[in-house]
Amino acid sequence: MFKWFDKWNREHPADIERPAILTGVAGAVVLAVVAVMALGQPYKTDSLQTGPRGNGMSVPEFVSDLAVPDPAIAELFDDPPYVPEEGEDLAGDIYQNVQVLGDLTDANFNRLMAAMTRWVAPEQGCAYCHGDGDLETYGEDTLYTKVVSRRMIEMTRNINENWDAHVNANKQVGVTCMTCHRGQNVPSDIWFKMGEVNMAAAGWSAVQNRATSLTSYTSLPTDALEKYLLDGDMIGVHDLESRVAARPGDEGVPTIQDAERTYALMNYVANSLGVNCTFCHNTRAFYDGGQVTPQWATESLGIQMVLELNNDYLVPLAEVLPEDRLGPVAGDAPKVACRTCHKGYQQPLQGTNVIADWPELATSDAPDYGQ
Q: For the whole model, what pTM was predicted?
């Protein structure tokens, strides 16, 4: 069987290693193939069907990855609310300058304050928002963190109350401070304006050709989040026809650059949720809104929600935040996008119901304690 090997050795006495290596590699490959066929795929996959069967509209995931929970889930805790009794004093009557949450009973008010401390400032404690003074000084707005946290409570209530179709699309999930902060003063995966990142490059140099976190380290345009999740530009691509009457410079006519921005945004969304294109789209007709999956509508609502959060709640905070909390290029306030909450999962905290114990954050009206 190995006569050729002996012949090679006789004719090439100085080059006997190469055929030996090739033989060994070939044998190892054959052994690996046989092992996979006999034992099965070592990295098994599962898939989520997102569209009609038979056309490849599914999101494959490694079973080993699906078995690993979001590590932040371990930091969640139960703390059921106290059902108010008739006649109990409210926080707004007991404490000074309670502009939000004043309609809570004292017990539920302090229960929520303690939870917010664990969610946002576990190391600094109450002093993070209220300073190191006595309890009598807690009503003062001397620290920017307290002013910001008040606005963030209002934002959280707005998300739970007015964006239910996105947040609770499949089941009750809700959001709390923990959804974004995960025990950090400043949430991870926020973003700032990046400006003209590479003016030295040729072509459309101002916003692309440099790998950045906002483009998942591709050379796609870096201003996609700014254009679509802050300015509210139309998400669209260049015309399907090669020659059209409309001119790219005309208002409402998408350009090739818009197509690249759109792809940058879609790439960001896919990575933020840990999915692929078929999670929302039929890949044979990306442009056809009549052939999308149900998740497309949920994601579209999410884009509109993020637009509102950035413009109505976060951008105005630039007047309150200190310089070291503003963007390094434009001095702008931090903003949110899909990854700020999702962290690479289809649902934040993998769909854990985080609002169940916190009805105070579910609505701007009086909380429903299920009495």
A: 0.81
